[in-house]
Amino acid sequence: MFSITSFDNASSYYEKAHHLWEAAETRNNLILGLSLRLTSNLHAYGEAMPFMAVVRDESGKIRASALMTPPFALIVQSEPLNKPALVALADFLIVKGFCLPGVNGVDEASDCFAEIWQEKTGQQARRILNTRAYELRQVLPIDYPEGKMKIAEESDAQIVADMHNAMAEEVVLGPHRLSTAESELENIRLKRTFFWVDGGELVSLTIATRPQIRSICVSGVYTPPRHRRKGYARALVAEVSKELLSRGYELTNLFTDLSNPTSNKIYQQIGYQPVCDYHQYEFN
């Protein structure tokens, strides 16, 4: 017998659930980082109310946790995997009338929940993304291209937005938000937006996002097509990782698309080590 507790207060949710995630920050960096962000701004990812819940067994022990910031996929966590807890979660969501766009999470948990949801609702669960989570504690020496890293300034906000929108059009599957100069300003003011600059031209972009307890995620790595295959992205991620470690983070983490062997290769050259795989499903 399982019970579901849902939360309207992100701080209360984090307080109850963070012990499930903190021992393996990279493995749980998505749900951990999002939860921490919601404690400071409940609508950081959209106007819709986030769904935050834990699943307890008869003894009161938490066996699964879940988070959704509509219109994005439900993130599920259950380690060790507890299928009955995920069944109880699915039943709760169905009874409450939730229409899920999909599910994301560490492969075992997301695979299990996708199968459960498909069986219970008749909706097809289609896997749309296979990613690998990596972490880094020390940057390895590499050969650098021409140019250097630059921390973005407020005057760069529009070009950051333009590059993020170009990246989303090219690689993002499922719903995504349109970036604007205004939406990029917060990260820029926190000095978490970075360029590689060569000959005065901004040739590659990345950001640091979702700070966790001891770590932070490197994300949004994008090089426009005409500047690719010159080593800019690898150099930028290496320098950004050094910068973040110098700011006091014990480690940095990132996701790569497993369909892109180049990115998986170049990040390992920098010193990123694979931790686990994530599977994202779309429900039709």
Structure description:
The chain is of the alpha+beta class and 284 residues long. It folds into two domains: 3-123, 3-Layer(aba) Sandwich (Aminopeptidase), CATH 3.40.630; 136-277, Gcn5-related N-acetyltransferase (GNAT) (Aminopeptidase, 3-Layer(aba) Sandwich). 36% of the residues lie in helices and 30% in strands. The protein has eight helices and twelve strands. The protein has helices at 10-21, 29-40, 83-95, 107-121, 157-171, 181-189, 232-246, 261-270; strands at residues 3-7, 51-56, 62-68, 74-77, 102-106, 125-136, 148-151, 193-198, 201-209, 215-222, 251-257, 273-283. A twelve-stranded mixed β-sheet has the order 1-2-3-4-5-12-6-11-10-9-8-7, with helices on both faces. Helix 1 runs antiparallel to helix 2 (29-40), helix 3 crosses helix 4 (107-121) and helix 5 (157-171) packs across helix 6. The chain is elongated. It starts with a strand and ends with a strand.
Strand order of the main beta sheet, please?
1-2-3-4-5-12-6-11-10-9-8-7
- Measured on Cα atoms, how large is the radius of gyration? 19 Å
Number of domains: 2
Specify the CATH homologous superfamily of the largest domain: Gcn5-related N-acetyltransferase (GNAT)
**β-strand number:** 12
The whole-number mean of residue pLDDT values reads: 95
Helix content bin: 25-40%
| Secondary structural class | alpha+beta
* CATH-assigned fold name of the largest domain: Aminopeptidase
Shape: elongated
